Amino acid sequence: MKFGRQLELNANPDWLDHYIAYSRLKKITYQEERTAAEHLSTHGTDAEVPESLKKSEAFREGLEQELVRIVSFYESTETELFERVDQLLRRCRDERIRREQEADEKEETLAFPIWWEGAWSETLELPRTQHQSQSRTLARLSEHDEEIRVETASITSDREIHFQHSGYASAATSVFELSDDDELIDEARQLFIALSELERYVELNRTGFEKILKKHDKVRETSLRKWFMDGRVGSMRPFQRVSLNALRLRTLRVEIAHGFAANIDNQRKNAALLRRHLRERITISRNTVWRDMINRERMVSTVDVAEQADIEAAMDRPRREITLFGRSFLVPNVPRSILLGVPCLVIFIVLLCVETFSTLPERRCFALLVFASLFWAFEVIPLFATSMLIPLLVVVLGVLRDADGHQLPAPIATKTVFGSMFTPVIMLLLGGFAIAAAFSKYHIARRIAAVVLSKAGTRPPVVLLANLLVAAFLSMWISNVAAPVLCFSLLEPVLRSLPASSNYGKSLVLGIALASNVGGMMSPISSPQNMIALDIMKPAVSWGEWFAVALPVACISLAIVWILLMLVYRPHRENAANIAMRRHDEPFGWRQYFIIVVTVATVILWCVESQIKDYVGDMGVLAIIPLACFFGTGLLTKEDFNNFLWTVIMLAMGGIALGQAVNSSGLLKTIAELISEMEEGFSLWAVLAVFALLMMVVATFVSHTVAALVILPVVNEVGNSLPDQHARLLVMVCVLICSGAMGLPVSGFPNMTAIMLEDSMGRNYLRTLDFIKVGVPATFFATVTAVSVGYGILLALGF
C-alpha cells in the first residue's frame, strides 16, 4: 500500500488537515522532473539546467511550509494537552487526600498500590523497555514500506513502572468500597487517547518526510534526505527525543491516574483496559475513513462482478427501449451471460441428441468438447469455472472407456478423471509460480531490469529496444502475466514526462505487450500454453531443445516487432523528454543470492532432465526444489502461496481432464483420421501450414490458453497419424504460434494489461486500432518465422 493511502487510513480524522501534504509534495517532485526533462528536450542534453531546478527550490519551499505548519499544530496541541494533564493530576491529589481523610475518620488503614504514586511522584521515570519498544516502532515505520496498521501495541506497550522506591505495598485493605469518580476516569481516558494520538501524529509525519524525501532523491537524483531530516526535522521540537520523552511521561502519568481514579490495583489490567478504550476509539473514529477507502477499492474490483451486476440490472430494468427504422421498441434486457449461455446450452443438448459419430461415447464427448469450447471462447462464465464443470460432465455423460472399449462405471471414471488432472505439468506450473513470486517479492526482477534499462540512455529507438528485450526476458522467467505489470511500473518515469497522445509513449506500452507475448514462447514456464504443450508431447521436450527452437524464433520476432513499431510510430522523430531509467544501487542480500542460486540450479536440472530421468522421473519432480526451498526457509509465506494464479492452474487441470475424455472416448482418434483423410497427399510442411493458420486465427480472437487446450490435442493426434509421426514438431510449432498471436487486445494477458493502462488523466494509452496496426502484422511475421525457421530447426533436431 502506498504511503499516501496509509496516511489517509491512519490519520486522526479530526486532525486530517494538519498532517503532511504528502500528495502535494509528490506532485511538486514530478512537476520538477517534467520541467527538467522538457528543458533538456528543448535545449539539448548539454544545456545547463536552471539553478532553481538544480536546487529543487519549489520542493524545498514546500517542505519548509509543511514543517512549519506541523510544528505549529504540535506545539499548540501539546500545550493544551499538558495543561489538561496537570489539572487531572491536581484533581487526583485532591481525591487522594479526600480518601485518606475518609479512612482516618473511620479509623481504618488505607494502603495504596505503590505504582499509583507515579501520578504525582516527582521521581517518575520512563521504563527502559518502553524506550526500546517505541524506538523499534519508529525505526520500523521509517525504514520499511509495510502497511501501517492501527495496532495499539505499537502505540502503548505494557508498562512496567520502575520507581526509585524499592518496596511494593499490598493492595488496599480497607473494608469499605470506594466509589469510582466517573468524571476523573473519563478525563483520564480522553487524555490517554489524545496523547497517544499526538505521538502517532509525530510518527506519521516523520515517516512522511522520510518517504517523500527518499522519493524526491530517487526521482531528481539529489541528496536532500539526510540534510533535511537531520538539519531541519531533527532540530524541531516535535521530533526531538526530549519532547518525545516528555509526551510519553505525561501519557504514563495519565495511565497511572486512570488506575487510581478507577481504583484498579493491578497495573497490567489497567493498561489493558486503556488500550481497549484506545482501540475502540480508533475503530469508531476511523470507521468512516476505512469505509470510504474500501468503497474506492471496490470500484476496482467491479470488473470481477460485472456479470452479477448485469443480472441485477436486468432485474431492476426488465425492458429497455431501442430505436429501429425510426420506431421505438421495448425489448427484454437480458444479461450477457444468459444471452450467450442459453444458445450454448441449446447447442449442447442438440448435439447430445444428434447422431454425429458412430458410438455413444464419441457423440457425447463431441457435445462436451463443443460446449466447453463455446463457454471458453465467449467467456459465458469465468474460464476456470468452465474447467471445473468438465470433470462433472465427463463422469455424468459416461464418455470414458476402458482398453476394451467398454464404458467405465461412474466410480472408476471419477478416480480416472481426477487422477489425470494432477500431472507433473501442474507441479511444473507451481514451481514456475514459486520462482516468479520470489523474484517479484524480493525485487530481483525489478533490479535486473532497472540495471539493463539504465544503460539504454535516452535515445527513443535504443530505449524501445531495451524495453522489448527486458520484457521478453522477464516473461521467460516470471511468466508473461507478471512481466508486463513489472515493466509498466519501471516505465512510469518516462511515461509521466511525455505529453498526452505521445507516439513514443504508445510505442513503449505496445512494445512491452507484444514483447511479453513473444517472451511467452521462450521457456516452458513462460506461459500456460507451453505447459499444456509439454503435457501433450510424448516424450516431453527438454529445456535445452525448447531453447534451441524458441530462442531463434523469439529473437527474430522481437526484431520484427521493433521494426514495425519504429515504422508505425516513428519515436525517433518525436521531441521526447530525456528521462533515463534509474538503476537501483541497493546491493543484493543473502536472500536474493539464495533465490538466484536455487533458480539457476533448478533450470540447469530441467535442462538436463533427459539425462537424469532414471533418477528424477520428470521435470515436475524437480519443480518441488524451488517450492521446498522458498517456502521451507520462510522466504515465501502462505499468503504468497494463496496468491498463486490458481485460476490458471484450474484452467489447465480442466483442459487436461477434457483431453483425457477426448482421448479415452475415441473421439480424438476419429477426428484425427478424418483430418488425415482430408490432408492425404499433403507434405509435412503443408499440414503444418494448415494448422499454423488455424492456430494463428483462433489464438488471436480467444485466449491463448483456450486455443492451446482445444487445438493442440488434435494437432498431436494428426501428427501421430502421419507416416513418420511428427506430432512433436507440429505441436511445438503451433504452441510458438499460439504465443505469437497478438493482433487484438483480447489476444493474451499482456495485451489485456496494456489496453487497460491509463495516464495520470485517466486516458488509455492504446486503442484497438494500435493493436491492429502493429499486432496483426507482427502476428503474421511471427507465424511465418515459426513455420520456416522453427520448422527447420526442429527437423535438424530430429523431431
From TrEMBL:
Topology of the protein relative to the lipid bilayer: Multi-pass membrane protein
Keywords for this protein: Membrane, Transmembrane, Transmembrane helix
GO molecular function terms attached to this record: phosphate transmembrane transporter activity
Main location group: membrane
Keyword Membrane among UniProt keywords: yes
Listed transmembrane segments: 337-354, 366-397, 417-440, 461-491, 546-569, 589-608, 615-637, 643-662, 682-715, 727-750, 771-797
A GO biological-process term: polyphosphate metabolic process
Keyword set includes Membrane: yes
Domain SPX: start-end pairs: 1-230
Gene Ontology CC: plasma membrane
Matches recorded under PROSITE patterns: SPX
Subcellular location per the Swiss-Prot or TrEMBL entry: Membrane
A Pfam family this chain is assigned to: SPX
Protein name: Sodium:sulfate symporter transmembrane region-domain-containing protein
